[in-house]
């Protein structure tokens, strides 16, 4: 929305002349600018002593409740009917409120572009869940972090991932959802998918459960379909794509781990992160043993049992550290 249009809508609202459509447009502007809500609140509460403190609070509550009302249309009409008296009362003291319109314009045109950063981190042995401002949901795996800033959901929905996460993205064709993983971007409109992008691993893995996403590397743009998995090599900058059962690679949120021809060293790194325990390979020649399968990762014992059951290696726990060795 243009700043001049927003000022006009605010003037219409203060004078009690705003239509339902104009109120909705103003509500959207306030909703997407949390700093504006805080500024507006502070201005009213620090306004002229001619206005009683209780009335100041009521004025702010009345204005914001109508502007930010997100209920169903029937509920909103009911609320609007009950707030008409308050609008008329505000209009009666328009001479006092008028400076707010000028201050509002001053804020829009001269406000500093302060950007706040928000972060959600899951430590080793933990998982975390995050609901973003517009309702998209992220499940974060162990030793992983999601970062986004206060410009989120204005023109686009951009987050940065370090580690592994599963995404359920609310559809919005006008505001694409973008996940940045180092030099790789995944662009989404609305879908469910998983990304594994740990800084200490050489590959970035993206698997699509439903919908469509676009993977963007420095040299490629790849459209993905459900049950496809793309692996991007950070050293060679090459990608490979394969057909998979996507749930196998996102079931870590349900304590199941799926590996496809993965070396033992990578598997142990994943298990170590998820259970926050050190694992040492006593024999260097076993680190490249490869495994394919799904294991129960409910606890460290079940995970280690599944690995050693089908191989020529064993493990023992010594001083809080797991040691893997050849039989």
Short description:
The protein has 9 helices and 18 strands. With 327 residues, the protein is of the alpha+beta class. Strand 2 and strand 3 form a beta hairpin.
Description:
The chain has helices at residues 3-14, 20-31, 34-45, 53-67, 73-92, 94-110, 246-250, 264-275, 300-309, and strands at residues 117-122, 128-131, 137-140, 144-149, 157-168, 177-181, 184-188, 192-197, 203-210, 213-216, 221-224, 228-233, 239-243, 256-263, 278-281, 290-296, 313-318, 321-326. The protein is α+β, with helices and mostly antiparallel strands and 327 residues long. The protein has 3 domains: 3-110, no CATH class; 117-250, Sandwich (Jelly Rolls), CATH 2.60.120.1440; 255-326, 3-Layer(bab) Sandwich (Phage tail protein beta-alpha-beta fold), CATH 3.55.50.30. Strands 1, 2, 3, 4, 5, 6, 7, 8, 9, 10, 11, 12 and 13 form a 13-stranded mixed β-sheet that branches. A 3-stranded mixed β-sheet has the order 15-18-17, with helices on one face. A hairpin with a 5-residue loop joins strand 8 and strand 9 (203-210). Residues 44-111 have low confidence and may be disordered.
